[in-house]
Amino acid sequence: MAKQLGLTDVSHAALIRAAREVVAGALAGDFPQDPVIGPDLSRAISTLGSVVKRHGGLIELGIAGALIASERFVVLTNVALPVTKGAAQLLDAKNSDQALAKIRLSADSEADGIVNVDLVVVDPEAKWAGAYEIKRGNGATEHGKRRQSIHKLRAARLVLESYLRQAGYGTMETCTSSVIDYYGAAGFTPEFTLLRDELDDHFGVPVVATVDAMTAALQEELKAALPQLFGAFLASLPVHDGDDGKVAGKGAGSPIRMTAELTERAAMDPAVLKTLTAPPTGPGRGTNRRRPVHGVASAEFGRAAH
Q1: CB-hemisphere CA count at 13 Å for 14?
Q2: What is the C-alpha separation between 261 and 10, in angstroms, rounded?
C-alpha cells in the first residue's frame, strides 16, 4: 500500500492547473442532445452539470493534498478494506458504536466482502488512523446510499488497525471513521459526520483553505468558459430592433457584440451560475391550506361545479 502521490503541490499555480483540467475535461465531454432545448443549450447545461459533479473529486483531492502537504500524515486514497465474517456478524447484530469501538478484528481472517473507502489518514507518531467517505454535500444523499456508507465505515473501523499494521504502518492505538460532508447537506447523522468547519480542528492542520482555494480557481475557470458554452446559443436568438418590439432577425444589429455582452454579464454574475446548477426544489410546506373537496365551494378555487 503506497503513499498517495496526488496533489502534493498546493501552490496557487497547482490549484489553477487542477481546476483547468476539470473544466477542460467537462468541455471535452460527449453529451446527448435534448430535443426540446436543442444542441447548443443541451451541451452548455450538460457541461455545467459535469463541472459540478467533478468538483466532488476536487474536494477529495484538496483534502488529501492539504494533509500530505502538512508532512504529518500518511495519506491513502481509494483503499480496499476486507469485511471479515466476524465484522459482518458484529454489524448484523446491531451492536452500538460504543461497543464496536473497543473491538479490533484481524484483517486477514476469512472475508465476507470488500469495502472501498475514499480516504485513510495515518499519524504514525500519534498511533492514530481514520477512514473517511467524502461527500460534496450540496444536496441530500439518498437514504439507501447513506445506510451503505455508514455500514462501510463501521466495517472499516473494525479491521483498520490490523490492516495498517500488516501493511507496515505500525500499531495504531486509536482508529476512527467518519463521513466528511463538506457543505453539510448530505443528511448523515451528526455523530458520524464531519462538516467543513470542523476539518481543521479534527486533523490539527489547515485543510479548508486549500479546498476553498481550489473551488475559487474552478469558479474562475468556469466563468471564463461561459462565452464558449453559451455563445452559439445566444447568437441564435432573434434580436429585437428598437422599442417597437419587432424582430430584426437572427444576427441583426450586432449578434457577436450582443453575445459577448450577455455572456460577459453572466460570467460576472454568480447568481446566473447558481441558478443554472441549482437542484430542483418543491413548493415547500403549505400554510394550513385546505384541499378542495368535490362539490364544496372554496375561497381559493372558486365556486363549486354544478
Answers
A1: 14
A2: 35
The DSSP line for 200-258 is: HHHHTS--HHHHHHHHHHHHHHHHHHHHHHHHHHHHTSEEEETTTTEEEEET-S-HHHH
Q: In terms of C-beta distances under 8 Å and separation of at least 24 residues, what long-range contacts does 21-29 make, across chains too?
A: 22/51, 22/54, 22/55, 22/57, 22/58, 22/218, 22/221, 23/51, 23/218, 23/221, 23/222, 23/225, 25/50, 25/54, 26/50, 26/51, 26/54, 27/225, 27/228, 27/229
Q: CA angle at residue 99 from 98 to 101, to 5 degrees?
A: 65
Strands (E), the chain: 74-84, 111-123, 128-135, 174-181, 193-195, 238-241, 246-250
Neighbours of 255 (CB within 10 A): 18
pLDDT at site 281: 56
Give the pLDDT score at 45.
92
Which neighbouring-strand residues pair with 177? 131
d(CA 43, CA 33): 7
pLDDT-based confidence at residue 186 (cuts at 50, 70, 90): very high
Q: What is the pTM assigned to this prediction?
A: 0.71
From CA 83, how far away is CA 85, in angstroms rounded?
A: 7
Dist. CA 223–CA 49, nearest whole Å: 14
Q: Is the pLDDT of residue 119 over 70?
A: yes
Decide which of 274 and 78 is more confident.
78
